[in-house]
Amino acid sequence: MRALIVSDIHSNLDALDAVIADAGRNGGFDAVWSLGDMVGYGPEPSACLRRLREFSLTAVAGNHDYAAAGVINAADFNGAAYAAIQWTAKQLDAGEIRFLAGLPQVAQQPPFTLVHGSLRDPITEYLLHPGQAAATLELLTTPYCLVGHSHQPFICRENGHPTSSRQAAVPRFYAFPEGERVPLDSVRCIINPGSVGQPRDRDPRASYAIFDNNGPAIEHYRVEYDIQATQSKMRRAALPQYLIERLDYGA
Fold first, then answer.
1. Strand order in the sheet with 181-183
2. What would the mean pLDDT of 211-230 be, rounded to a whole number?
3. What is the fold, at CATH topology level, of the domain defined by 2-104+176-246?
4. Looking at the whole model, is its pTM more than 0.85?
């Protein structure tokens, strides 16, 4: 079984379609696992939801998904994100809103647990530091965890080295190598596949991963997409200029 792992698509259909096509070229997949924020920021929320639901889909909620569906208040979003989520909510039909509102915060697809932010705070915590990783590993009941939200790909392994003889080993973050098959062994880890629709690691290419249970192993891929086409759609929708420009830089 092979699963296409995507996160933070953010209503960017051009990026999503590029990922699906690229994953097909890289061995294909049997199911899609989405780590949240399917909507928000970008110009085609409904089309992205329809595209994802063409496949065998397991999805968890992100903060933008819940905000668009009215499950959480978007008042603490920054100005551009708030404007985009207000626009997004108006594009969704009643069925799409019910779908987003009904998404679980945590799901399991053994050997993985899927969550948007972290197991300590599934919707809003950005898991970027060893202490945050340790808190999620403390709650983890499967060998591995998949997270999104930060838009930055990484692997965080539990087998970090203690900084002194008095301290326990701490999780350690590693780069998620592109195009390499990373074996999954007995060491527990947290993996972020990066963002499909709005990368923030200074690489504007769409980012995703494929899990192969034959091994098992996971692979990280990047693919170029038509950024200018997405930006044109965003301008026609009168979405904030900041959101349009940041796609050029992966920031």
1. 57-59, 31-34, 2-6, 206-212, 217-223, 181-183
2. 97
3. Purple Acid Phosphatase; chain A, domain 2 (3.60.21)
4. yes
